[in-house]
From TrEMBL:
Family per record: Belongs to the HARBI1 family.
Species: Cyprinus carpio
Protein name: Nuclease HARBI1
Annotated Gene Ontology cellular component terms: nucleus
Keyword entries, A-Z: Hydrolase, Metal-binding, Nuclease, Nucleus
Length: 343
């Protein structure tokens, strides 16, 4: 692929540089649909859609320097997200230098991360009933509108306070995700170091504060690292009745959705297996991938055959913080009622 060619001319004793540019080849036109999916994880129409989303932030105001088009910037970002390889390798494939890839990935990630509230939200109105029905078909669990879990993204050791990011002897960012039965991410928190427990991330989230004051029309299912709350159902640690065992089975089947969601997210965007950037840059990239994941899922963008399964790293169970005793008591009352009425 042709890159920018610089030619320099000198006149007299004073150096004068004249730039002559060769336009970049149009990647969208030179690849087949299958090749676009393999290289960028999106086809022609979705790529143009993504470019239109970030255009207000990434459209250059001047053509004096023949800057990269928005479409070209998006392709650079998508290529990095899909491959997770070095900037130099991405640049060689796209036809730009390493520093340009670094700048573009940073800028495109910020632009996409700024759209998270537009693409990530809990179901509302008619969506609630549809979501409950899909979860019921998935695991026979009633009244469920979401599943919650955290996933770690491995990053390089930061220059400051690196000990805060260490989990399982690696530097990580711990990300809270809530998803639905269609594997859409409906809530997320992306900012905490890997050493922070899942329960604390929940407790200090806007979602927790909102649902503690405004009761949710439904429940969210989580594993035993989370507290049992009126709106957050966890399994019985030791089922003592057949009904409790049935509840645990349904709960487990329902929670499979969040495990599949995490797997698909990291399969589609291989960069999330290791980010060679500082924490703030990593958070922007993770948020960008979350937005792109929801776009891909809603538009039924297929996973390519060459995208392999990336196993979720084994993590030690987090120790949840001590929640208010009344919260646990009310949560147990709700769970007992669910078991009595449905199991």
């Amino acid at each position: 692929m042709a890159g920018i060619v610089h030619r320099y001319h000198h006149f007299g004793g004073r150096g004068y540089r004249q730039r002559v540019y060769v336009e970049h080849a149009q990647a969208l036109e030179q690849y087949t649909t299958e090749e676009l999916y393999a290289r960028f994880r999106f086809g022609n129409a979705p790529i143009k859609y993504i470019a239109d989303l970030v255009r207000p932030k990434r459209q250059w105001r001047t053509r004096r320097s023949h800057s990269l088009s928005v479409e070209k910037q998006v392709l650079i970002g998508l290529r990095f997200y899909a491959s997770g390889t070095f900037y130099q390798v991405v640049g060689d494939n796209i036809g730009v230098d390493k520093s340009t890839v670094s700048d573009v990935v940073k800028a495109v990630s910020i632009a996409l991360a700024g759209l998270v509230n537009q693409f990530v939200s809990l179901p509302k109105d008619v969506q609630i009933a549809q979501t409950k029905h899909k979860f019921f078909l998935l695991g026979n669990m009633s009244n469920t509108i979401g599943v919650i879990d955290c996933t770690h993204v491995h990053i390089q050791a930061p220059h400051e306070r690196d000990w805060e990011y260490i989990n399982q002897k690696r530097n990580n960012i711990n990300n809270k995700l809530v998803g639905d039965a269609d594997l859409i991410i409906t809530n997320c928190v992306v900012k905490w170091p890997g050493s922070v427990y899942d329960a604390r991330i929940l407790r200090e989230s806007a979602l927790y504060r909102e649902l503690q004051t405004n009761r949710l029309d439904g429940i969210i299912s989580g594993d035993g690292t989370y507290p049992l709350l009126p709106w957050l159902m966890t399994p019985f640690l030791a089922a003592t009745t057949p009904a409790q065992a049935c509840f645990n089975t349904a709960h487990c089947k329902t929670r499979c959705a969040i495990e599949r969601l995490k797997g698909v997210l990291k399969r589609r965007f291989a960069c999330l297996n290791y980010l060679r950037v500082e924490p703030q840059g990593a958070c922007n990239i993770i948020l960008a991938c979350i937005v792109l994941h929801n776009i891909a899922t809603r538009r039924n963008v297929p996973l390519c055959d060459d995208v392999y399964d990336v196993p979720e790293p084994v993590e030690e169970p987090d120790q949840p913080l001590a929640f208010c005793q009344n919260e646990g008591l009310t949560g147990r009352i709700v769970r007992v009622a669910i078991v009595r009425h449905y199991f």
